Amino acid sequence: MSTYILMKILETAPGRYDKGIRILTLGRLGKAYDRLTSHIRKGQKILDLGCGTGALTIRAAQKAAKVKGIDINSQMLEIAQKRAAEANLAQNVELCEMGVAELGGEESESYDIIMSGLCFSELTEDELLYTLREAKRILKPEGLLLIADEVRPKSISKLILNWLIRVPLVTITYLIAQTTTKAVKNLPEKVEKAGLLIQSIKLSKIEDFIELVGRRPKQGAK
Ligand SMILES: C[S@@+](CC[C@H](N)C(=O)[O-])C[C@H]1O[C@@H](n2cnc3c(N)ncnc32)[C@H](O)[C@@H]1O
Fold this sequence. Notes:
It is a single chain. The chain is of the alpha/beta class. It has a single domain, classed as Vaccinia Virus protein VP39 (Rossmann fold). Helix content is 39%, strand content 22%. The chain contains 8 helices and 7 strands; from the N terminus they run H-H-H-E-H-E-H-E-E-H-E-H-H-E-E. Strands 3-2-1-4-5-7-6 form a 7-stranded mixed beta sheet, sandwiched between helices. Helix 3 crosses helix 4. The chain is globular. The protein binds S-adenosylmethionine. The site of S-adenosylmethionine (SAM) has 21 residues, from helix 4 and strand 2.
């Protein structure tokens, strides 16, 4: 799963992103997204952070949820728009060219679910912490935060293995795309620090990929 780093190269060619990510992850990302979106119910209001070409957005819209996808890459959004139209789901999907730094404009307690696939690993530390705080504000009480992303393993042996795999991939990615991703450190702790509860965590075998379900506490609860 450390091969996710190569997605930064794919992002420079959005037309090839979906096919490339399927090959890179041997279809495992799709399965992780299916598991995460199994929490979505008909009619819910959903926000997809860094929606890209719409992998999570389309899954949510297929469940008759109303989804707003935000992303800073207009070419990725164009593909997401096309996919939604082709799947006859455009009425359930709103796509906005907007960064997580602009989440302050969203109404408090207005979403049932906030989700994000492989976007937190592209944020700066400040953006990430701000996004989690805003997620808590924007979610309705008992609303869910669904995250699938690259994380930094905690055990030393897995961390060393992860570095051995990542260093050459980071170098290749940087040479081609002049950018890279950063596996998120201590994501569950950061989610809790933002005031959300951890409902479940699923880590990959080598602990470098997380599927996290967080929940905003009930109204009145601490
Ligand atoms: C690896 S892609 C994943 C896209 C999609 N979620 C998926 O799983 O296919 C990460 C996306 O996050 C977007 N992104 C990066 N930084 C962002 C930010 N600050 N605000 C919003 N989107 C951002 C990128 O433009 C990119 O489309």
